[in-house]
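Note to self: the last two entries modelled the partners one at a time, which told us nothing about the interface. This time every component goes in together.
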Amino acid sequence: MKYYTYFPGCSSSEGGAKAYGWSARAISKVLDIELIELDDWNCCGSTPYSSIDELVSFCLSARNLALAEKRGLDLVTPCSSCYVSLNRTNSYLKEYPDIKARVDEALAAGDLEYHGTVRVRHLLDVLVNDIGYGEISSKVKRSLSGLKIAPYYGCQVVRPSPGFDHPEFPQSLDKLIACLGGEPVPFPLKSRCCGGSLIISEEALALDLIRKLLDCALSNGAECLVTVCPLCQTNLDVYQSRVNKRFKTSFNLPILFFTQLMGVAFGLGDEELGLKTCIVPAEEALAKYL
Amino acid sequence: MEKMIRTDAFVNEIAALPGGEGVRLCIQCGTCTASCPNADRMEHTPSQLIAMARAGMRDEVLSSDAMWYCLSCYLCTVRCPRGIKQTDLMHALESLAVREGLSHGRTLTPAMYRSFNDFVYSLGSLPEFGFMTWFHLLTNPLRAFRLVPVMLKLLKRGRLSIRARRLTPQGTRQLRAVLDRAESLGGAR
Amino acid sequence: MERRIGVYICHCGTNISGTVDVEKVTEFARGLDSVVVARDYKYMCSDPGQNLIKEDIKEHGLNRVVVASCSPRMHEPTFRRACQDAGLNQYLFEMANIREHCSWVHEDRAMATEKARALVSAAVRRVYYHEPLETKEVPVNPSVLVVGGGIAGIQAALEVADSEHRVYLVEKEPSIGGHMAQFDKTFPTLDCAACILTPKMTSVGQHPYIQLMTYSEVEDVSGYVGNFKVKIRKKARYIDEGKCTGCGRCQELCPVSVPSEFDCGLGKRKAIYIPSPYAVPNKAVIDPEKCSHLKGLAGGKDVCRLCQTGIEKKGIPGCEADAIDFSQNDEMVEIEVGNIIVATGFQQFDPSVIYQYGYGRYDNVITGLQFERISNASGPTGGEILTADGRRPESIAILHCVGSRDVNYHRYCSRVCCMYSLKYSHLLREKIPEAPVYQMYIDMRCAGSGYEEFYERLQEEGVNFIRGRAGEITNIAETPEEEGKLIVICEDTLIRRKRRIPVDMVILSCALEPRADADQIARIFSLSRKADGFFLEKHPKLDPVATMTDGVFVVGCCQSPKDIPDTVAQASAAASRALAMISKGRVEVEAATAVVDEEHCAGCKICVDLCPYKAISFDEEKKVSRINEAVCKGCGVCVAACPSGAITGRHFTTEQIMAEIEGVLV
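The predicted structure of the combined assembly is written out below.
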């Protein structure tokens, strides 16, 4: 049994990407992982906060880290944005004593202390490195053989380096798909940005980026795409119709969370995995495996 | 060009910001711009911002809309041959611009970020539906209207959560205390 | 005997006096025990400065001298000579480094002065215990070993050999010529590389004073300056060099085809091959890892011997000189030389680690050396510029600074890439004038005779210079014109716009980097490596070919990236240094060596194995260790290790060291 402190982030807990949270918990049970949710966690602040007021954004993350430090386990998050924010805070606190002093003071106002000992991990890292492909393969009940899947990492799970995978040409998700029996298609844009939160304020710009990703995935034969970040999934799935409208395309590519894909391979039910929440329906592509 | 203040003052200011240390090392190779997905939309390219900074053009740099288009995808950072943390530099410039009241009006991004932050401050967590609705009504009700089909689909698929997650009352108090103190300590540097 | 110590504090212009209060230090020195005279002067190493010492030695009867100035690495020999000239044994001198160890590394004036005082006090106390020592003179073997047969090694070998002294030229590959032999034309004159190199290669091959050992590697070096013993492995060619005529029949018959290293993987060679049309020596060699017969022999089987037997059915005979000998073995050769010139060269950076440039993923992204082979008339395409699928490219991009000037790979600038990029542009403009050529650069570094003029010429030839380092190369087209092309994405920093340039071929101007076996070479020849990985010279400005190991020189690109003119100049420099030593016939060997007190030696032999220079031997009869003073470098390991305390490090005795420590602490 492996234990981790779990930081779902706003999207994956009760936001639009709650299926990510459901499926993450479901497959963790199968893999003998206990994800203990951090009590009373707050939003990590993500890009918006760090762009408006950096110090406050560090404090947002520092509160979570201080709370997590009490239990002393690794802090795991399924969201790439939370992953980057929390890690960035950790490095800044280590590198800049001036910032650490101010953050410490702010934390003290809330009766908190943080000593810099929490290791922040992404769920993908934990699964492929702590659990391992072999163990994951052994839990596969319905091999995904024949299914062509585009592994989409997005930007923040692999950058800035050093991380647990190559910053431009990562392989961990590809290998994960392969160990589930699926066929990871070559996907040159697999670590490029989906537009992130700019989908809200600069929709046209972000839609163009999304279109390029979908086009690339499809032209390499993908039948579906898996992501490791709730923002990426939202942008590629929820806004796929907006892409079609703007560019007169007819994309119909199902976008899944990688944990949902794992769940399908593990033989879990589509209720547990929240497959119905996918806007672009996934039922047809996955029919053989459900 | 108009007023050129003493050219090294601004560079020294940026170099003192966390993530801004590399500003003196830039060789203007343009790799950051070449790697940036949004460089074409920016008023100034990422490398241009550094060149302008080194020429002392403080106002122009801080009122540029360039950094607000930064997606934090970090491609510039991993490819920069001088090891400059360009993404962090962009964030530092954004924070500085906000503090000086120069955050750009030509893109809705700063307003969106502020809206996001207000929600996070008051609730401790971001309520997606509430945030999206509020932001769109605030900035462009017409566009909000166009997104209604998307919202309906979300509702149909059980993906729309209208209820917002909240922290416990103690948690909220604790968070506010920390954030208030942080704000009073004024900025990252 | 009464000690009469003279202390001299140098200002070194303002290098020392700018931070250290030299007057105060002199005042302090004057008050130290046994100090008879203390002076300060602006430049102690100058003639007047040295004269101060010489005059004081005579006038005040000084028998010990301390100079507090720069690092002993700079001027210890200068001041030692000054003492010797005035009749004082040079080992009765000590230097206090109050520059590199004090004024150059501290800012606080008061604390720096305090430290300088401590350093001077230490030197004064130490020098009290110095004893006169005599250096030895050893004869110099007039033969020279040159390691590496590229242009650097060839030049050095010819210059030494022309003075009628023997040179052993050892080259790892089956032919000399190095990378220069792979080039097409050379900048800025556009001389054909082979045309200017082959005459020198031929001279080497025919020179009566050069013993050329190709396909050979140095395995061990022992000894000391003027007297090195070198073990060389002559790898088995499986060819009798005496019989082989270089006719090339064998390589026509061989059925095994493998990628050619000389053609950078673009062309093919056989398992038995002659390295190039202008190989020196022009002899065949068999690659034991690819030859099916040699591989089969290992399993006891007699497989293909077509090169030897020929194809009887078709009436094609095999080797008519009967030169093929599958039973050949490696041969070990031992030689003795007085000087060694290391000219092992560089290797090209492998750009496949830069994922975003697509080398290894896209067939038409090639390296500079690969382009040299394509453009070279003796290369795989006969000198025609062709893409991987045999078409003429419609447009070409050349990317500067691949692996250079980059914290992620090599921080340094490789110096020659701007120039060879211009050269490639010229070759392309000449051979396919209808194809636009783009050079993506950060800076144009054209410092050299005729180099800037060459740049001007290329501007006239209509090359499109874009000032912007390429961010990535992609084949994902965004417009119809980009379909089927490689797109280079860069910022044109001069117009501040991101640009997408679709081309058919991309040439990566890769860095010159230290060879993969540099560590091994460093170990064998006692060389140090700099932070950038190249071999360390004695002084970057004033002694660029010597190393800290006397008698061993480094020349050419193994010392730092450089062009052919500078390589040749360095080779000549090293040759002249070696010849100077040979001409003198003898060399002075440092006296600060270790010596065994045989009475106290317990015969435990611990020191014998510890000595890194193999300078200690064991006398089995007397059961004591003995140190060869000429080989001993005075490192002190044996002194510290000896459990009986029987070994003394001359000029580094316990007394002297303790006195020095006291001087700092008290």
